[in-house]
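Now for our specimen.

. . .
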Amino acid sequence: MKFLVCISKAPDTTTKIEFTDGNTKFNEAGVQYIVNPYDEWYALVRALELKESLGGEVTTITVGPAADESIIRKALAIGADKAVRVNAEANDAYFTAFQIAEYAKSGGFDMILCGKETINYNGSQVGGMIAELMGLPYVSLATKLEMNGATATIDREMKGGVEVVEVNTPFVLSAAKGMAEQRIPNMRGIMAARTKPLEVVEPVACDDLTTFQSYELPPAKSDCKYVDPDNMAELVDLLHNEAKVI
């Protein structure tokens, strides 16, 4: 089977978020980028597990500049066979999905996997857009994936239970927590990643459908109030008169 895994970068979770140019741009100075965890831990690892049990090849694809190659190499170190980088800044979800779909159309992939969302934008849009652009079935927020020939059985968590669906290849899937367990690249994988093929392709012409007007940080958290466990009357008063339901 041929797997295509969409890989994106995201700031490390310890990054201090700041904006520049009148809050219109994210300040990348000193930012340490990582592979988006949903792409790495769940989509990529499950593709590798399926390749190991069924045979095949795992290719990653990233839309981004040359600076993104360090996070691409990490995906290769974990076990992907080869990588593709579309040489363009990913300005919005549609542009990213369009570039991936254009590449995938001629690739003969049985499955295209991505994380359910990135941890910086939390948009959860790219997977669905890829499926629409390619005319393929799309299963979102998958927590379990099993293959029987060309038929996949997929679990999706839903309110009050689990939805189980079946779909034939080829299809697009977004992976959520539970799909697989994180893998840590070992020294052999890190060394092998240096020589694995990383193909750079130029982007296909595509209109930018969205622009960012400005960013703003969420309100600072307020101080916590501590209540003596023996003073229940004070706790009840605070819950009635000061607590805010979000």
Remarks:
- Residues 2-215 form a domain with the Rossmann fold fold (CATH 3.40.50.620).
- The longest strand covers residues 138-148.
- The chain has a mean pLDDT of 90.
